[in-house]
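Aim 2 progress. For EamA domain-containing protein, the working sequence is reproduced below.
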Amino acid sequence: MLAILITILGHISYGTTNVLWKNPRNELGTLPLIIIRSLCCFLIFLVSYFVLTGLQIIPTTQFTWVDLVQTAGICAVNYFGLFFFLQSMKHTQISNTIGFGKIGLIIGVAAGYFFYGEEISALKVFLCIVVLIGVSLIEMSGRTKKTSLLSKGLLYTVLAKIFWSTAYFYVPFIDKLGPVLFCAVLEFTVCTLSCILFLVNPTKIDFKNITPTTKREIGLLIFLGTLGTFCLNFALSNMSIILFAIIGLIEPVLGLLISKFYHKESLSHYQKIGITLGILSAFVLSVTK
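Predicted C-alpha coordinates for this construct:
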Protein backbone atom coordinates (compact mmCIF):
# COMPACT_ATOMS: atom_id res chain seq x y z
CA MET A 1 0.00 0.00 0.00
CA LEU A 2 2.85 2.41 0.84
CA ALA A 3 4.45 1.82 -2.56
CA ILE A 4 1.12 2.57 -4.28
CA LEU A 5 0.71 5.84 -2.35
CA ILE A 6 4.28 6.87 -3.16
CA THR A 7 3.67 6.04 -6.84
CA ILE A 8 0.56 8.22 -6.88
CA LEU A 9 2.49 11.09 -5.28
CA GLY A 10 5.24 10.71 -7.88
CA HIS A 11 2.81 10.78 -10.80
CA ILE A 12 1.00 13.79 -9.35
CA SER A 13 4.37 15.58 -9.21
CA TYR A 14 5.33 14.61 -12.77
CA GLY A 15 1.82 15.27 -14.07
CA THR A 16 2.14 18.82 -12.80
CA THR A 17 5.65 19.36 -14.19
CA ASN A 18 4.50 18.16 -17.63
CA VAL A 19 2.37 21.30 -17.77
CA LEU A 20 4.98 23.63 -16.24
CA TRP A 21 7.67 22.90 -18.87
CA LYS A 22 6.06 25.00 -21.62
CA ASN A 23 6.72 28.63 -20.62
CA PRO A 24 10.29 28.13 -19.28
CA ARG A 25 11.18 26.17 -22.42
CA ASN A 26 9.92 28.99 -24.62
CA GLU A 27 12.04 31.58 -22.77
CA LEU A 28 15.22 29.59 -22.07
CA GLY A 29 15.23 26.91 -24.74
CA THR A 30 15.01 23.15 -24.33
CA LEU A 31 18.59 22.25 -23.37
CA PRO A 32 19.35 25.18 -21.02
CA LEU A 33 16.15 24.43 -19.11
CA ILE A 34 17.01 20.74 -18.77
CA ILE A 35 20.54 21.66 -17.60
CA ILE A 36 19.28 23.99 -14.87
CA ARG A 37 16.63 21.58 -13.65
CA SER A 38 18.81 18.44 -13.70
CA LEU A 39 21.84 20.14 -12.11
CA CYS A 40 19.78 21.37 -9.16
CA CYS A 41 18.11 17.97 -8.75
CA PHE A 42 21.50 16.22 -8.92
CA LEU A 43 22.92 18.41 -6.16
CA ILE A 44 19.85 17.82 -3.98
CA PHE A 45 20.10 14.03 -4.37
CA LEU A 46 23.88 13.97 -3.89
CA VAL A 47 23.79 16.04 -0.70
CA SER A 48 20.82 14.03 0.56
CA TYR A 49 22.70 10.76 0.01
CA PHE A 50 25.73 11.83 2.05
CA VAL A 51 23.59 13.39 4.79
CA LEU A 52 21.25 10.40 5.09
CA THR A 53 24.10 7.85 5.05
CA GLY A 54 26.10 9.97 7.50
CA LEU A 55 23.16 10.00 9.90
CA GLN A 56 22.68 6.26 9.22
CA ILE A 57 19.09 6.84 8.12
CA ILE A 58 19.78 4.85 4.96
CA PRO A 59 22.55 2.25 4.53
CA THR A 60 25.74 2.97 2.63
CA THR A 61 25.51 1.06 -0.64
CA GLN A 62 28.27 -1.16 -1.99
CA PHE A 63 28.95 -0.69 -5.69
CA THR A 64 31.73 -0.55 -8.28
CA TRP A 65 32.58 1.87 -11.07
CA VAL A 66 31.14 -0.68 -13.48
CA ASP A 67 27.80 -0.41 -11.67
CA LEU A 68 27.87 3.37 -12.05
CA VAL A 69 28.75 3.20 -15.75
CA GLN A 70 26.00 0.66 -16.46
CA THR A 71 23.47 2.76 -14.55
CA ALA A 72 24.52 5.89 -16.43
CA GLY A 73 24.16 3.96 -19.68
CA ILE A 74 20.50 3.07 -19.27
CA CYS A 75 19.80 6.55 -17.86
CA ALA A 76 21.38 8.01 -21.01
CA VAL A 77 18.92 6.10 -23.18
CA ASN A 78 16.01 7.21 -21.00
CA TYR A 79 17.21 10.83 -21.23
CA PHE A 80 15.93 11.20 -24.78
CA GLY A 81 12.40 10.68 -23.51
CA LEU A 82 12.53 14.10 -21.85
CA PHE A 83 14.29 15.61 -24.87
CA PHE A 84 11.64 14.43 -27.36
CA PHE A 85 8.82 15.34 -24.97
CA LEU A 86 9.96 18.97 -24.89
CA GLN A 87 10.41 18.94 -28.67
CA SER A 88 6.84 17.67 -29.10
CA MET A 89 5.50 20.69 -27.22
CA LYS A 90 6.65 22.89 -30.10
CA HIS A 91 4.28 21.17 -32.53
CA THR A 92 1.12 20.29 -30.61
CA GLN A 93 -1.08 21.27 -27.67
CA ILE A 94 -0.09 20.03 -24.24
CA SER A 95 -3.36 18.09 -24.02
CA ASN A 96 -2.41 16.11 -27.14
CA THR A 97 1.20 15.66 -26.06
CA ILE A 98 0.34 14.23 -22.67
CA GLY A 99 -2.70 12.30 -23.80
CA PHE A 100 -1.28 10.10 -26.54
CA GLY A 101 1.87 9.47 -24.53
CA LYS A 102 0.04 6.90 -22.44
CA ILE A 103 0.86 4.23 -24.96
CA GLY A 104 3.51 3.65 -22.31
CA LEU A 105 0.84 1.86 -20.30
CA ILE A 106 0.85 -0.93 -22.86
CA ILE A 107 4.67 -0.97 -22.92
CA GLY A 108 4.78 -1.21 -19.13
CA VAL A 109 2.37 -4.13 -19.03
CA ALA A 110 4.38 -5.93 -21.70
CA ALA A 111 7.64 -5.31 -19.80
CA GLY A 112 6.15 -6.65 -16.58
CA TYR A 113 4.88 -9.78 -18.29
CA PHE A 114 7.78 -10.67 -20.58
CA PHE A 115 10.81 -9.27 -18.68
CA TYR A 116 9.83 -9.71 -15.03
CA GLY A 117 7.54 -12.72 -15.42
CA GLU A 118 4.53 -11.09 -13.77
CA GLU A 119 1.07 -12.56 -14.19
CA ILE A 120 -1.50 -10.90 -16.44
CA SER A 121 -5.10 -11.91 -17.04
CA ALA A 122 -7.37 -11.61 -20.06
CA LEU A 123 -9.31 -8.94 -18.15
CA LYS A 124 -6.19 -6.82 -17.78
CA VAL A 125 -5.42 -7.15 -21.48
CA PHE A 126 -8.96 -6.09 -22.38
CA LEU A 127 -8.94 -3.10 -20.03
CA CYS A 128 -5.54 -1.98 -21.30
CA ILE A 129 -7.03 -1.97 -24.81
CA VAL A 130 -9.88 0.18 -23.48
CA VAL A 131 -7.31 2.60 -22.05
CA LEU A 132 -5.57 2.79 -25.43
CA ILE A 133 -8.91 3.57 -27.10
CA GLY A 134 -9.49 6.34 -24.59
CA VAL A 135 -6.02 7.73 -25.21
CA SER A 136 -6.66 7.68 -28.98
CA LEU A 137 -9.85 9.69 -28.46
CA ILE A 138 -7.89 12.24 -26.44
CA GLU A 139 -5.28 12.66 -29.19
CA MET A 140 -7.51 12.57 -32.27
CA SER A 141 -10.25 14.83 -30.93
CA GLY A 142 -7.73 17.58 -30.21
CA ARG A 143 -6.97 18.19 -33.88
CA THR A 144 -8.51 21.34 -35.25
CA LYS A 145 -7.63 20.53 -38.84
CA LYS A 146 -6.69 17.51 -40.91
CA THR A 147 -3.08 16.55 -40.36
CA SER A 148 -0.90 13.64 -41.22
CA LEU A 149 -1.17 10.70 -38.87
CA LEU A 150 2.59 10.92 -38.47
CA SER A 151 2.70 14.61 -37.57
CA LYS A 152 5.82 15.97 -35.87
CA GLY A 153 4.02 16.45 -32.57
CA LEU A 154 2.75 12.87 -32.60
CA LEU A 155 6.09 11.41 -33.71
CA TYR A 156 8.01 13.23 -30.97
CA THR A 157 5.43 12.17 -28.38
CA VAL A 158 5.66 8.51 -29.36
CA LEU A 159 9.48 8.67 -29.38
CA ALA A 160 9.42 10.29 -25.94
CA LYS A 161 7.27 7.51 -24.53
CA ILE A 162 9.41 4.78 -26.09
CA PHE A 163 12.61 6.17 -24.58
CA TRP A 164 10.92 6.94 -21.25
CA SER A 165 9.69 3.36 -21.07
CA THR A 166 13.25 2.13 -20.56
CA ALA A 167 12.61 3.16 -16.93
CA TYR A 168 10.76 -0.14 -16.50
CA PHE A 169 14.20 -1.80 -16.64
CA TYR A 170 15.67 0.37 -13.84
CA VAL A 171 14.83 -2.12 -11.07
CA PRO A 172 18.17 -4.03 -10.83
CA PHE A 173 20.10 -0.74 -10.95
CA ILE A 174 17.98 0.83 -8.21
CA ASP A 175 18.39 -2.29 -6.07
CA LYS A 176 22.17 -2.06 -6.50
CA LEU A 177 22.66 1.65 -5.74
CA GLY A 178 19.61 2.43 -3.64
CA PRO A 179 16.94 4.93 -4.78
CA VAL A 180 18.67 8.14 -3.60
CA LEU A 181 22.06 7.45 -5.19
CA PHE A 182 20.38 6.08 -8.31
CA CYS A 183 18.44 9.33 -8.68
CA ALA A 184 21.69 11.29 -8.31
CA VAL A 185 23.31 9.27 -11.13
CA LEU A 186 20.18 9.71 -13.25
CA GLU A 187 20.14 13.50 -12.90
CA PHE A 188 23.92 13.74 -13.40
CA THR A 189 23.58 11.80 -16.65
CA VAL A 190 20.75 14.04 -17.83
CA CYS A 191 22.74 17.18 -17.02
CA THR A 192 25.93 15.89 -18.69
CA LEU A 193 24.22 14.86 -21.94
CA SER A 194 22.34 18.16 -22.10
CA CYS A 195 25.58 20.11 -21.65
CA ILE A 196 27.26 18.13 -24.44
CA LEU A 197 24.37 18.70 -26.85
CA PHE A 198 24.21 22.38 -25.91
CA LEU A 199 27.94 22.90 -26.55
CA VAL A 200 27.53 21.40 -30.03
CA ASN A 201 25.17 24.24 -30.95
CA PRO A 202 25.30 26.89 -28.21
CA THR A 203 22.81 29.74 -28.07
CA LYS A 204 22.84 32.97 -26.12
CA ILE A 205 20.58 33.04 -23.07
CA ASP A 206 19.31 36.36 -21.70
CA PHE A 207 18.70 35.61 -18.03
CA LYS A 208 17.79 39.25 -17.33
CA ASN A 209 14.60 39.01 -19.38
CA ILE A 210 13.26 35.90 -17.66
CA THR A 211 9.88 36.76 -16.19
CA PRO A 212 9.06 36.26 -12.49
CA THR A 213 6.39 33.73 -13.50
CA THR A 214 8.94 31.66 -15.38
CA LYS A 215 11.35 31.77 -12.43
CA ARG A 216 8.61 30.41 -10.17
CA GLU A 217 7.83 27.69 -12.69
CA ILE A 218 11.52 26.69 -12.85
CA GLY A 219 11.56 26.49 -9.05
CA LEU A 220 8.51 24.24 -9.12
CA LEU A 221 10.08 22.10 -11.85
CA ILE A 222 13.09 21.52 -9.60
CA PHE A 223 11.06 20.79 -6.46
CA LEU A 224 8.42 18.60 -8.10
CA GLY A 225 11.02 16.98 -10.35
CA THR A 226 13.10 15.95 -7.32
CA LEU A 227 10.03 14.66 -5.48
CA GLY A 228 8.62 12.84 -8.50
CA THR A 229 11.92 11.25 -9.49
CA PHE A 230 12.54 9.86 -6.02
CA CYS A 231 8.97 8.64 -5.48
CA LEU A 232 8.71 6.83 -8.82
CA ASN A 233 12.14 5.19 -8.65
CA PHE A 234 11.55 4.10 -5.05
CA ALA A 235 8.16 2.64 -5.94
CA LEU A 236 9.46 1.05 -9.14
CA SER A 237 11.66 -1.35 -7.18
CA ASN A 238 9.03 -2.08 -4.54
CA MET A 239 5.90 -3.03 -6.48
CA SER A 240 4.56 -4.83 -9.53
CA ILE A 241 5.74 -3.26 -12.80
CA ILE A 242 2.31 -3.86 -14.34
CA LEU A 243 0.54 -2.11 -11.48
CA PHE A 244 3.14 0.68 -11.62
CA ALA A 245 2.37 1.26 -15.31
CA ILE A 246 -1.38 1.22 -14.65
CA ILE A 247 -1.26 3.79 -11.86
CA GLY A 248 0.80 5.95 -14.23
CA LEU A 249 -2.46 6.91 -15.91
CA ILE A 250 -2.92 9.44 -13.10
CA GLU A 251 -0.08 11.49 -14.55
CA PRO A 252 -1.51 12.35 -18.00
CA VAL A 253 -5.05 12.77 -16.68
CA LEU A 254 -3.82 15.31 -14.13
CA GLY A 255 -1.73 16.97 -16.83
CA LEU A 256 -4.75 17.29 -19.10
CA LEU A 257 -6.87 18.86 -16.38
CA ILE A 258 -4.13 21.28 -15.30
CA SER A 259 -3.36 22.27 -18.89
CA LYS A 260 -7.01 23.15 -19.42
CA PHE A 261 -6.87 25.84 -16.75
CA TYR A 262 -3.19 26.79 -16.62
CA HIS A 263 -2.60 27.22 -20.36
CA LYS A 264 -6.25 27.97 -21.20
CA GLU A 265 -6.58 24.91 -23.43
CA SER A 266 -10.06 23.48 -23.83
CA LEU A 267 -10.94 19.77 -23.62
CA SER A 268 -13.40 18.42 -26.17
CA HIS A 269 -16.21 16.00 -25.37
CA TYR A 270 -14.20 13.14 -26.87
CA GLN A 271 -11.21 14.01 -24.69
CA LYS A 272 -13.46 13.91 -21.63
CA ILE A 273 -14.76 10.50 -22.74
CA GLY A 274 -11.18 9.32 -23.23
CA ILE A 275 -10.21 10.49 -19.73
CA THR A 276 -13.23 8.71 -18.23
CA LEU A 277 -12.41 5.45 -20.05
CA GLY A 278 -8.84 5.66 -18.84
CA ILE A 279 -9.71 6.34 -15.20
CA LEU A 280 -12.34 3.58 -15.01
CA SER A 281 -10.07 1.04 -16.69
CA ALA A 282 -7.10 1.94 -14.48
CA PHE A 283 -9.28 1.64 -11.36
CA VAL A 284 -10.55 -1.82 -12.30
CA LEU A 285 -7.02 -2.94 -13.22
CA SER A 286 -5.66 -1.71 -9.89
CA VAL A 287 -8.23 -3.54 -7.76
CA THR A 288 -7.77 -6.76 -9.75
CA LYS A 289 -3.99 -6.89 -9.40
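The chain has one domain: 2-287. This observation will guide construct design in the next reporting period.
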